Amino acid sequence: AMALYHFDGCIVKDASANGLHGSLSTTTANNPTGTAGGKFGNGLTFGGAKRVSIADDPQLDFGAATDFTIEAWIKTSSGSDGDIIVKRASDAATTGYLIKYNGIAGTVSAAISDGTDTASPTNGATVNDGGWHHVALVADRDGNATLFVDGTAGATAAMGAVGDIDNAANLGIGANPNSGANFFDGDIDEVRVSSGLRYSADF
């Protein structure tokens, strides 16, 4: 893993060997709260203006050719949209990647973009029942991007036209920390950012 966040103990510590620890806001109200009811051990509860920010690092950028996987466990019953994992400057500046929650539909969607061409895999599975669900975006750079929900793939999106997705944005969990927007309302646990294809079929 490039980065792995269990949200246990030191709640935004990177459990990988890379030391990409998250940071909290100096405004206490903007910080998620720890919950003993995580998927595994503790988790974090988001809502309002709460978010976690991880400083931009080359290990969180995947250029024009590196395969990667981003994933998390989420729990929500919200009717509002929110970013789950995001690394792009704003909604308008699309270069980078994200998994987001769609409040009205109760589903998740994803996007990977070089700023011009975007791959947007979808998954119709609903996740708004207040239970834990695993979401994973897998990007095969010379194939397809796939969004898995609870181990089942949705509709893929071709990656062939998508070039360099690197940016200088911080990585956000639970919101976009760069634009201070798109706040997720619910719990998040076990966030992992990896190079390579962790899943290639339903699991």
Word description of this protein:
It is a single chain. The protein is mainly β. The chain is built from no helices and 17 strands. It has strands spanning 3-5, 22-23, 33-35, 43-46, 52-54, 68-75, 82-87, 96-102, 107-113, 118-119, 122-123, 132-139, 144-149, 152-153, 157-158, 171-173, 186-195. Strands 1, 3, 4, 6, 12, 13, 14, 15 and 17 form a 9-stranded antiparallel β-sheet that branches. Strands 2, 5, 7, 8, 9, 10, 11 and 16 form an 8-stranded antiparallel β-sheet that branches. A hairpin with a 2-residue loop joins strand 13 and strand 14 (152-153). The radius of gyration is 15 Å and the shape is globular. The relative contact order is 0.27. The mean pLDDT is 96.
Topology:
Layout: E1 3-5, E2 22-23, E3 33-35, E4 43-46, E5 52-54, E6 68-75, E7 82-87, E8 96-102, E9 107-113, E10 118-119, E11 122-123, E12 132-139, E13 144-149, E14 152-153, E15 157-158, E16 171-173, E17 186-195
Antiparallel strand pairs: 1-17, 2-5, 3-4, 4-17, 5-16, 6-12, 6-17, 7-8, 7-16, 8-9, 9-10, 9-11, 12-13, 13-14, 13-15
In short:
The chain is mostly beta strands.
Main attributes of the structure:
203 residues; mainly beta; 9-stranded antiparallel beta sheet; 8-stranded antiparallel beta sheet; 17 strands; 38% strand; globular
What's the rounded overall pLDDT mean?
A: 96
What Rg, in angstroms, do the CA atoms define? 15 Å
Low-confidence stretches: none
Question: In percent, how much strand structure appears in the residues?
Answer: 35-45%
Give the overall form. Answer: globular
Helix content: under 10%
> How far from one another are the termini?
19 Å
Largest sheet: 9 strands, antiparallel
| Beta strand count | 17
